[in-house]
Design brief:
It is found in: Nucleus, Nucleolus. This protein has about 150 residues and is mostly beta strands. The protein contains one helix and nine strands. The strands form two sheets. It has a five-stranded mixed barrel.
C-alpha cells in the first residue's frame, strides 16, 4: 500500500489584493490626527486596491523634507483627507494603542506626495492653491494642508 503523504493546497492566493511594501506609493484616507502622528487606512498600492485593512502612520518627521520641527500635524492633515504617500517601512507594532498588530510608516516628504483630495467644512472638494493651502470653491475659505504637487 503506497505511503499517504499530507498535501497542502493554497486556494485564492491570486485573488489577494495588493500589499504595501517599502517603496510602494500608496493612496490612503486619514482617519485620525494627533500631535506627532496621523493614522490612515491604506486604500491602494500603486494602481491596485487593497482587499484587507492596512493601517498607515505618518510621523511628524515624515510629513515634509524641510523645517521638520515646525510641522503641525493638525495643519498638514485632517480626518477624511486622501493622501498620496510612500511606504517607508513596515512595523509589527508593539504599541497596542493602535489596535492593530501591523502598521506601515508612510512619508509625504516629497513634493508630489501629500493631500490629493480634501473636503472643506462646507463639504465641498477643495482646490489646491499652493503647496500648503487648499481653498473651498463654495465659501472661498482657505485651509492649511501638506498639499501634493499634482502633475509632477
Amino acid at each position: 500500500k503506497p505511503l499517504q503523504r499530507p498535501t497542502v493546497e493554497v486556494i485564492g492566493h491570486k485573488a489577494r489584493g495588493a500589499v504595501p511594501e517599502a517603496g510602494s506609493v500608496v493612496i490612503a484616507r486619514v482617519t485620525k490626527v494627533m500631535a506627532k502622528t496621523a493614522s490612515a487606512d491604506i486604500m491602494c498600492v500603486g494602481t491596485k486596491s487593497v482587499r484587507e485593512k492596512f493601517t498607515g502612520v505618518i510621523r511628524q518627521q515624515d510629513v515634509r523634507a524641510t523645517e521638520i520641527d515646525k510641522v503641525d500635524m493638525h495643519l498638514a492633515f485632517r480626518p477624511g483627507d486622501i493622501v498620496r504617500a510612500v511606504v517607508v517601512s513596515f512595523s509589527s507594532l508593539r504599541k497596542l494603542s493602535l489596535g492593530d498588530a501591523r502598521a506601515y510608516y508612510l512619508s509625504t516628504a516629497k513634493n508630489e506626495l501629500g493631500v490629493v483630495s480634501a473636503n472643506s467644512t462646507a463639504g465641498e472638494t477643495m482646490v489646491p492653491i499652493s503647496w500648503t493651502e487648499m481653498q473651498c470653491p463654495l465659501t472661498g475659505q482657505i485651509e492649511q494642508r501638506k498639499v501634493a504637487k499634482v502633475g509632477s
